[in-house]
User: Fold these one by one.
Assistant:
Number 1:
Amino acid sequence: MKKFTKMAYAIFVLLCCNTVLAQELTITGTVTDNRGIPLPGTNISVVNSTKGAQTDFDGFFTIEANKGDQLLFSYVGFLPQTVTVTNETKLEITMQENVEGLDQIVIIGYGTSTKKKIATSIGTIRAEDIEDIKFPSIQSLFTGQVTGVQVAQLSGRVESGFKVRVRGVSTVGASQEPLYVLDGVPLINEDESINNSPINPLIGLNPNDVESIDFLKDAAAAAIYGARGTNGVVIITTKKGTESKPKITLNTSTGLNFTTKKRDFLNAAQYIELYSEAAQNSGVSQAEIEARFDELALGRDWRNGEVDTDWQELAFQESVTTDLNVAASGGTDKAQYYMSTSYNKTGGIILGNGLDRYTLRGKTDVNITEKSKAGFNINLSKVTIDRISNDNSFISPLQSVAQSPLTPALLEDGTANVDGNSTLYQNFLGQEQTGRFVTDIWRTTANIYGDFYINDHLNYVSEAGYDSNRQSAERFSGSLTEFASVGGFGTVSTANTERYILTNYLKYNTTIGSQFDISATLGGSFEETTRASQFTTGQQFPSDDLQTLDNAVIITNGGSNKTKYNFLSYFARSRFDYANKYAMTLSIRRDGSSRFGSNSQFGWFPAASAAWTVSNESFLSNSQFLSSLKLRASWGITGNAEIGNFASQNLYGLTSYDRRIGVSPIQLGDPELKWEKTTQYDFGVDFGLFNNVVTGEIDYYNKTTNDLLFNQPVPGTSGFTSIVRNVGEMENKGIEVRLSTNIISNSDFNWNLTGLFTRNVNTLTNLPSGDIIDGVNILREGESLSSFYLYEYAGVDSDNGDALYYINSVNADGSLNRDTTNDVSQANRIVVGNPFPEFQVSLNSSMKFNNFDFAFILQGEYGASIFDQAGKFTSGNAQFFDNQTVDQLNRWQNPGDITDVPQARLNEENGQADSTRYLQNADFIRLRNVTLGYTIDPTFSSKFYLDKVRFYFSGLNLLTLTDYDGYDPQSTADFNGNSGVRSGVSFYSAPPAKSYTFGVNVEF
């Protein structure tokens, strides 16, 4: 019986083997593209096996496989294709080109299109391109992703505002920020901060909710938003549900935050040495300087090193960021939904700074009929920010680096040292211990739409949008602050801005014959924005623990304000396409704004664009080198109305005289104030090489802004200093290049590389009012906006240690007098650099190898300058008692010394003028982001009902290469705001945070 069993088993195994062998087939065939051209080098592999082959020069292949096996065909630049083996042993495989962005949907304003159909310059960021990369904010998504877009964070505060510039700066006095449109709603983008330190107006948006971001860069793309398209339009589209089973996504991460850079300041011994010498050089006796050291040290033994305070270490801190995001999506053929909620707690790198953000989003789309649909979208967020004073405040933590290292930060009992003789400035730790500064921001954005089918060619769309930005700030300064003398001081302020948008338009599409496509859009919109604000102040609080205003003995001030403005707009757009070769788009918008003079409230904003898809011509149909080629040209006019609500009006305010109340003029108005308009030309080419293995875009643009809106100075005899007028002209011109390549693409390894290059040159081409100077910046015809206007530093006189300046008077032949002087009043200021980069570059790489993914972003800027206003105090030759940077140890001391640091002189100016001594190049290359992830094999995770489990590490701002010796080449003074003449000035401005984040993504 046992023998029979063994024999039967052997026969069974043999039969199985014969069966398997019998099923193994020799598969042959060819692989071509959709034009019939062979694709040599195509990879063919048997899925879930080690078997593989490649096509030869004629596209021919041979491979062994079993019936039922799956053959995977992959070739760089083409979509992978899978074929199941049957009894057929000869295959003819046609690969489809992977056109990526060419067929991707782009948002063009009141509609959509595909990349290959548009004739304008639009940059796009897709969720799938960035889903594996961790970004802390919406604007940080932009950095290094799109040509022609510069993103700079003002400082390292967690709530810090951003500068986003699309194709340079096109205005002076009006807003320089682009228009943000979230799911069809133009967003409120005004700062409501009570301490002149801008808060990021998009801080309440959750980056995980973003589906796509489209940048309308040229006028033909942005003109459909006419009134506010001068600075570009950024269209943010959030994720939505799809017709699928319910899907839950969980993203959670924890990060560690550090400062990207710390500067080197003098320690106590170096400080004593420098200031003892400075006192001697200025005739101050040793007894006097030692007495001052005694005051600074608050009686501690500075001679024996009893005190050596590192104020920078006290100002900076290491912190933790926690992020949790949960989303659910799905739907049927009748309705689709997307819901998400998130919590983010970000610790700042500056003591006393941090935020908590809560968001809740819901989005529903319903198919009313087979061809009509409606939807609703709402986003709720609350952000609570622990704030600190702005850069220009003595109580700002980073300004404490100017405190003497001889000064103890704390008394023996642990309270802040606020002795007025010991501290040079108010000790910020006093505010930390007995103060509170909290801002709460509630943001609601919502829109509801209906897309109604009328006939096969015509649809009617109606949208209603709403945006509410409510900000409440409470600030209390107690017994250890600068307000101790009044018993403490408290402020409460609220500002509530609401925007309502009604939009209705018709969409028409038709085809004439088989070659001619026509589409058109016609509609109008009405927008109203209201703002209400209140503030109250009080003083004399009985205790530092009682910080609300109902505990103030005296209410010292208060007030409220209400205002509103509106836009009324009509727009039309038509698009013509013939044979997928020739396309033309025409658009026009008429905008009316209540902000302008009664005779100039409306403006026309036309645009036109055309494209020729050369690669669809017969003479290129068989090209193996040039797989796609499109030539584009566009022209258009856009406007700017972001100047405040009453700039065209004569305004009056309350005044008092001899205890009598009256009214007096407070603003000169210009009833002829009109739209600032920008005319832009764009010429571009889109191309793909080697079956789109390499793709690229090249654009040249020229933007001219006429009737610039800004405050023009007027004679003081008028009783005013300035008036808002349309004066002057500005030009931006540049070139943008984007190159992308899919270096490797197969089932195991995929590697994409993208390089971006932007050059922009800004020039004030007409300024009839003459030079306008504001601090170290100047508006001058023929120069860049906000150019630096400074004395030119000439180094140090090696004989006596005097600081020298070039005289720079104009000689008879027009040249500059390059003689030097030690008297700055004998020198002349000249234009030396500007705060805007001439070149921007970035390199983005993403790799996927089996279950691993790796990505990085390198970003660089060249040609900009930055002025260190604080350097006049902290690198100022010991003129004041501020602590100094270590470079002051290289000062001139003896005749014959060769150095750029003048002799140290206490209480005497020797090189501290606004000169190029404190102007530096802001060039840098930054490793912006690095991400390494690992996804668990789905065959394993699916056993636990999980579709995807990915662990990742992400690093932000890991390395910055720059010659700038300040904190950061992009960090500028937050109190300068985002517009106007002043720009590019640093003043104790904090660097961005360096973050290391560990997280997990789960889908089920």
Number 2:
Amino acid sequence: MKLKNILYALSLCFFLVMNGQTQSPVKKEIQYLSGTDVKHTKTWDFWVTAGCNSGKWTTIQVPGHWEQQGFGGYNYGRDNVTNGKNFHYHDEKGFYKYEFEVPASWINKEVNVVFEGSMTDTEVKINGKLVGAVHQGSFYRFKYNIEDKLKLGQKNLLEVLVSKMSADKSVNGAERLADFWIFGGIFRPVYLEALPKENIAWTSIDAKATGSFNMNVHLNNKLDGYDVLAEIMDAKGSVVGTTTAKTTATDSVINLKTTVKKPKLWSAESPNLYSVKVSLKKGTDKIYETSDKFGFRTIEVRKEDGIYLNGTKIKIKGVNRHVFWPEYGRATYPEADLIDVKLIKEMNMNAVRCSHYPPDKNFLRVCDSLGLYVIDELAGWQKAYSTKVGEPLVKEMVVRDANHPSIIFWSNGNEGGHNFDFDDDFGKYDLSNRTVIHAHHKPGNAINGIDCNHYEDYYSTQKLVADANIYMPTEFLHAMQDGGAGAGLADMWELHWNSKKGAGGFIWDFADEGIMRTDLNNMIDVNGNNAADGIVGPHREKEGSFNVIKEIYSPVHITLKELPEGFKGEIPVENCYHFTNLNECNFQWELINFNGKQEDETGHTIVKKGNFVGPNIAAVAKGVLKLELPADWKNSDALALSAYGPDKEEIYRWVWKIKSNADLLKPILTAEAPKTVAVKEERNILTLTANAISVSFDEKTGELSGVKNDNGSAISFKDGPVLVSGTSSFTGLKHFKEGEAYVIEASYTGNLNYVRWKMQPTGWLEMDYQYTLDGEFPFAGITFSYPEGLVMGAKWLGKGPSRVWKNRLEGVTFDVYENRYNNTQTGTAPWIYPEFKGYFSEIVWMELSTLEGKFTVASSDEDMFVRLFDFYGINANKPHPKLPVGDISFLDGIPPIGSKMGVNDSNVRGFGPNSELNSIHKPIKRSLYFYFGSPKLKENKEEKLPK
């Protein structure tokens, strides 16, 4: 050490002694060189070798990816694969420089420079000297001891060389040539840590549901004659247990054991956390102190049975999640972790798989505190790390993460990216010895009693849950665009819930991985079909499947579809919690009236409401919710019920109609009007006019051929009815007066039996029709044409706000909704939800706003679907599913949708009973009402809906 530094240190020691501060800090001191997260960064000097803004020194914000700051180029992992064997890439290298000072008080301290994550090969120098071997592997915390290279009291220079691609082919195979975006740079924080020379390097805790506490304390060196003390504290900070041991000169690992009486257990439903403070002491002097949070829980895999937590079998309601945000890529910030965990729990999920690499450490903290079961995964996307490179990465991952109670499994790679040499490595660093799984996509790869095979259909799953192994797919119901996720989930979840060895699984995946391209005017790019796999959009926009999953996974499981005759306020319920009694939940019922079909009115009005505590129904038991409704409850339009969990968050809200469609339509179908219908027949066109509305029919085809609204303007609704399945031939038309109305009857041969039109003096046009089908059909009903480009929006009374599919009817409730026109194709820009186009269920009435004026369609019959215009659910080799003819359809059957793995009818049917085609073997009879204008409500206080 230079004389200047020695004199400086001596003077500092003298100052501390004179001020009574003879003991150095006993806790780890942290000095950030980068920012703390991607929203709180520091400026470093930077040079990139290729791509945008390359070949010059400039500055960059750290942490963060260089692509997101206008450097280098973008790569999607699959872009690098050619002919399935070789790969090519732009091997960008980034040079970083940063000057820093360290406190002179760090003399005689162990000082480490720590990188939480860097992509990918990272070479580090301090003051021109290499600090150690190049680190290979992107998602892992690594550190170097640099105390002998620092200059105390002077400027120090940190230089980092980061290579986007690794010099090791196995690292590229495991991390870089994958089905996700590839980035470069120091994307997680960098900091210095200063510790006493004698310190605790890391700890590993095994805290069981019995209260047994077992802890390995790993010292940084072998120490003789020191005391190690552990103090266990509850959430209030009260000490509930202590244990101590003395070090020896022969071992650097100290084992501490004790028992805490009746601890509050950790689970996803009750995430009770404890903390342990560990002190290293020499005599009465405290040399070093550290702390960890943990939870008391016991995880068991009972082979040929199931997964048990704290002695109770649990079922996994999980989702896969990438660390990703459009503006930042895989660099993140604490609020983003919180947003994601809250959204996952809002869907009533209880688990998350960290695909396909360990997440930032804060995400695991949030899972610990809010309650999610976690699979923590070693990277290995269909290719594995070599043993030489991968073994240190396993250690780095487990040492960092072992004490998180949320982690219930370790995953040794994804879909063939398993190096079997690693399977027994996880237990070397994890005292609790959690089970290691293989997240795989080929049968026969079960390990440790758990089969995680990906993308099995409903019927193959039936066989797997009857096999010897527990079945827990780590990917299923692939949610590319609008497929999968909620579609088919009801059948699949019931199968897992009711099967002994069905353990649930993890939907692929949470969010569309859309990156904001700095080289493409900041557009969000999902790389075609590759990354549009989310239940939510890139900025967490909720797709239709979000609320579907929320309903299906609701731990308050209610299957009542409609209120039965003689309903007395009793609703059957199944408690699908694993640990929570329903008396820990709260409920609210509401009697509501739907807002009337008037300008600018949507939603509903609450007439009366009541609150009650849930009944005593134990976990996984069934019972009845008893609603104390007022005597006049039948006067309301609908009954709503909301359930709230112990955390006061809404579990789900159900709505049942009280009144029939016919009763709900009375206020608009009984408007006052002139008492005449005019009839005009000219050139094979028959025109009826009432209340200033005209409708015309082609006597050669029997179809509606023209409409004028009550302002005399043409409305282009025409060319129907046409059957969407089956055939028909028009045979004739007759027309006649019927009371004050006028009737047109069209006859047919084939599947369309008849169509009967009746023009009322009010201007309402009633259409009664019947068709007969015998077989299985993707859709059934009638259709008309209308130019999509003229439509501005829709308002309706029915289920919403999202569109539905035959195998995704959940997640929508009765109300009055309004949606402005959008051309959203799910999973692509501009991510405006709910989609305007699609199948909408149980429509009572729907009003379309167009450039030509408004018109309304209503049905007094139950269970009508309305199809709006052309759309697709999945855009694979061709858009899927196939659409009915026409533009606006009124349907009795709609198609199911598959996932990325099933984009034809035969594959979709494999998703289960609800994914079969519509089986129709009888006549279907229905009535529709049309009004080409803005209908007036009847001025009758008893029938007029309240505002």
Number 3:
Amino acid sequence: MTDRKNPNKYAVVDLEATGSGSDAKIIQIGIVILENGEIKETYATDINPYEMLDYHIQELTGISNQQLAQAPDFGQVAAEVFDLIGDAVFVAHNVRFDANLLAEALFFEGYELRTPRVDTVELAQVFFPQFEKYSLINLAQELDLDLEQAHAAISDAYATAQLLLKIEEKIASLPKQTVEQILTLGDHLIYESRLIIDEVFATMDASIPENVEFVHGLALRKPQGQLEAYHLSDDFATNLALLELDERAEQAQFVQLIEERLKEEKGVHFIQAQAGIGKTYGYLLPLLARRKENLLITVPTKILQQQIMDKEGKKLQELFCISISSVKSPAHYLKLDSFWKSLERADENRLLNRFKMQILVWLCETQTGDMDELRQKQRYQSYFDEIQHDGQLEDKSLFMDWDFWKRLQREAISSRVLITNHAYFLSHLQSQDYLWQSRLLVIDEAQKFLLTAEEFASQTIDLTAILQTLQSKKDKTEQLLDKRLLESTAFELNNLITHYRSSGQRDIVPEQLRQIKQNLLEMKMEEFRDLARVLEDYRQFWLEEHQLEDKRVSYLRASQEELLDVAPLLPQVKTFCISATLDLSKKVSLADLLGFKDVSFDRVSHRHYNNQELFLASDMPAILEKSREEHAAFILEEIQALQSVGKPILVLFISIALLLAVSALLDEKEIDHLAQHKHGPEASLKRRFEKGESQLLLGTGVFWEGVDFANQEEMVLVITRLPFDNPKDHFVRKVNDRLRREGKNPFYDFSLPMMMVKLKQALGRTTRTTTQQSTVVILDNRLLTKRYGRHIIEFLQKEYTLNTLPLAELTEAMREFFD
């Protein structure tokens, strides 16, 4: 390591260049000199590269060819630059690029730059572990850095200098013992980045912050004591005013229905209310104000669960001191024993060691131990699989009283409000009944509860993992009979998968599994016990495949022949089922399908949306007649046209394959976008989209009904296809079989109304507030060509303005709406 002539002098450098490759040339230099925590000097100059800039670089930096034509070449400023930075530590945001490029340019002018290098990207990742992204623009937003003009060298250098000071402040705020632990891993940081930590560490005292306690060498944030909750007013409007929110007419009607049903001691109450009326506060506030029982809220997805915790839950905690817990599977939480053991082990992987440092910092901050707070963990999933909680705690655990999962369980028991998701609730009805006992139950978006119940009643076996185990056992066994049985089982499973891939036939009849069942019965090997049990207990089987990173994973799915009767499984407590629809048709209700017999039905009157308009093209092509490639090209063309409206665009798909095909075409056109199943987890994509990182988001699945975009004041929503469920889906087939036996029409009594519910919920994603404006274009010609299309149009026109006009006129009509 090079000796530092002045230990307190840093040269914070940013370069703009003709590109990002090895042949890039410098076009702009910005330097900020820091000494003793203060900015002492700044330097900025353009550099003439003697080549024309491409359009992308000009757009990114705002630098023109005419501007550079007047600038000095690098040789004219090299001595001045070297004199300024030659005796300082070289600091940059992505130091590898800036330092290498500048060092090479100086070398060709006769100067050798051998100063230590510090990377603020990696230091920010370590000391701000809960951030989503670490670009300078993102960090400027998170840390309130002064970034006047991104991608202008002096502006970026100034913001990076501020970032370095913020990093130093953060290090100084940590316990000295924690910083010392980080330094034991510090050599795994890029270049000499640990110099910053060393320098701050030398000035720290050994006192322990009041909000931290050391447990077996780990600094852990002390749990916050729960303050006594305030009594809420019986008047809903008063509570809403304290939250600085305005009451809406439909919300007031919804609250009135809740309050009327609360007068009854018991019962199951279904309430129909459309999206965007403020249902969450609508049931939380009156239930908290008027009943003494604790509440259990179950919602469709983990994203929505976290959304409620971050918004309504956080406000209720801050204003009324209401204790609220969110319950998810233990795998979301850090197991302190496992992390402690990983610290004791020497690892050579640089990324893994950086995550160890991040977690040491995070443990001084987190109240929950929920690893979802660590936004970057998917970059080294195997390590997080190692340290995630398994729901078990040994009697000799070093962290018995501090274990996050056990603490959550204790807090959940006494929490005034418990929030979970449908899948977790159904999976733990029996094993965690102590959590659900004596609580008022609210099933939010109850129409999704039906499908989750079916998922809960089915079983999934990872056949790819089974085949790997079969091969491993075959290689190790010396028993000829076992070897033959293992070979036969692997052959049968591979045959099923090969047939599925070649024919597309998902269904498996029990007879096709007879030989596998017999083999497993004879082998009696513990590794295949779950597969044997599923083959014995279930009668309906099918195959599924998912693409995970660079490999295809095959799954065997199994379910019972009849729909699961959900109602008898639920706690016998007062229950509210909230849904966008109660009657799927004149003959079928949601309560029927869930198995409830004696229930009440209430409905909030519909309102007409004036802040959202729907558009349907009169000259749309027949999408069902198009190939996937043709369909993707059509959607791309429409996206490009809609971008001229100048608003954020959410595009919803029902097919992952089509979504990825459109994303690939956008890449070819170099159109910036975010795509589900390609650019990260759903929650991450939502946050990045709302922050404006991209104006275009492609989504499916939870984006239809589990994600709100309340922070976007104006949006364009594109429905690429009507969201009918796949008629070959086993759940849909079960419902259809049951309805046929009851003399009902499966399409008109279930498939069509369920599609319309899903469509309506999608429309509600972009009308979460009365001030939010959005337009929706439905790119499916079946509304105009199919007999059932008129039912859909009549359904939509009850609440929305529906405009039918040629494709060429859509964008202008949307501009007029927003204007």
